[in-house]
Amino acid sequence: MKRTVDVSIPVGPVHPCWKEPARVKCETKGEYVLSAEVELGYMKKGIERIMRGRPWQEVMFLAERVCGICSVIHNMVFIEALEAISSIPVPDRAALLRVVVNELDRMQSHILANFSYCYTIEHETLGMYLLDVREKVMDELERITGARVTCAYIVPGGVRFDLRAEDALHLRANLAAIEEEITRYMGMFENGPLIALRSREIGILTREAAQEACAVGPTARASGMPETDRRLRHPTYQKLGFTPVSREEGDNYARIMMRFQEVLQSIALIRMCLDSLPEGPIRGGGIPGAGEIAYSGEAPRGELSYFIKTDAAGRVLDIAIQTPSIMNIEACCHYMLKGVASLADVPSTFVSSDPCIACTER
Amino acid sequence: MSGYLYEKDLSSMKYAILTSTRHDRMVREIADDLGIPQLRLRRYIMDQFDMLLMENLPARYEQGKRLTAEAPAAERDLKTHLYSRAVPLIQEEQMECIFSRVKEMMENGMPEKEAVSAGRRLIREAILA
């Protein structure tokens, strides 16, 4: 007679579908997952400790090395925190260029996350299509900032490089191509019967659970929490009339569709920036001074917070970074994975929360 | 007892998480609030929580404090939500049990302040047991 026994099954730390190492220990009863807990510590950088005591000019470069996928927002939040401490103004043109680069970064991050999900549910064709589109976004990032990943584009009082007229034209043309392709792939994802089987009503995160785990970003917005979007409180986004998108289902499918929708929203935001880009300087100057602040911005994965204390010379005396993946992976492992009907859905549910271990183990 | 060959002792890494700026502030606040030695509380958290829950504790703590502030008087003073859901130091059933005892004391004529103080003692005992 077949027996059902309780076993603890470790998934990871090295898993073919995960970009970074983490170990999820699943307590199972047959295929049913009763609970899960996570072990980290395979790539701890101790970057906050490295930052302490260093001048802001060095910490700025360290900040964007917290995460290779969303480096622009780490750069942006750190610099905007320094600007808030020292009341450094930013020219209008620079503020809009920051949004352009930040949204390009969000697009490539979301497309990469959706690629990982498609790869995990064995839909490699769609995954590869998405990677191909991502390259277009990376090319635009490189064209504007001079680098694909660690751009160091945002500096106190402005940005490093202006957007040339020919680059703006190229960006518009590429955005049109990306929009067309993403719309097509969204349709493929939406209507794929096998995708639906692996994604709908799997890994459900209710609004209450999302609130309790402090889930943020697309993970929270897929569970009906649009108010978690920090862009609502950012002055440049407010001027652009930004309104977040959200869904109610809270399952794997909703989280992936949420990111597709946000890619299209980012395209619209970039177009608005290009349309309203005023002539003028891109750097106003200003030197960071002494102060203490808690400052947050909306990273591709959600709310990213920096708690910074500086001295009169702009040296970072104390710093703590709260990355969105900390909250989202916790929401995933302690709420979404609980009650998953099949162990085969554990990797895909984990990936659907867009986990970034580099951010978590900053 | 069976175990994984590659199971690691995570104590030092958990301790590193707990001694970071925001975690340390949170531990000190909770220890002061409940009257528990900080070292005992750190040890307890390291034993009870997995690494990810530990990483997320400051965010949960801040969220828990906000929700607790909106709760009815006795629950707010006892911080039932904060210590059983946001920072799950004790299980929900245990907290419900403590809260019902506090309510019982108040119904029997004990002033609310004293009853809540007795409830806190019960929470402390549950953690230190």
Produce the secondary structure layout.
The complex is a heterodimer of chains A (362) and B (129).
Chain A: E1 6-11, E2 23-29, E3 32-39, H1 47-51, H2 56-63, H3 71-86, H4 92-120, H5 124-145, E4 154-155, E5 158-159, H6 165-191, H7 193-199, H8 207-212, H9 217-221, H10 235-239, H11 252-275, E6 291-299, E7 302-310, E8 316-322, H12 324-336, H13 345-352, H14 357-360
Antiparallel strand pairs in A: 1-2, 2-3, 4-5, 6-7, 7-8
Helix pairs in contact in A: 3-4, 4-5, 4-11, 4-13, 5-6, 6-11
Chain B: H1 11-18, H2 21-34, H3 38-48, H4 51-55, H5 57-69, H6 73-78, H7 80-86, H8 92-107, H9 112-128
What key phrases describe this protein's structure?
heterodimer, A: about 350 residues, alpha+beta, Cytochrome-c3 Hydrogenase, chain B, 3-stranded antiparallel beta sheet, 14 helices, globular, B: about 130 residues, mainly alpha, about 0% strand, elongated
> How would you write the strand order of the largest sheet of chain A?
1-2-3
Q: Strand pairing plus helix content of chain B: what structural class?
A: mainly alpha
Separation of termini of chain A? Answer: 49 Å
Question: What would you call the shape of chain B?
Answer: elongated
Radius of gyration based on Cα positions of chain A: 21 Å
Average per-residue pLDDT of chain A, rounded, comes to: 90
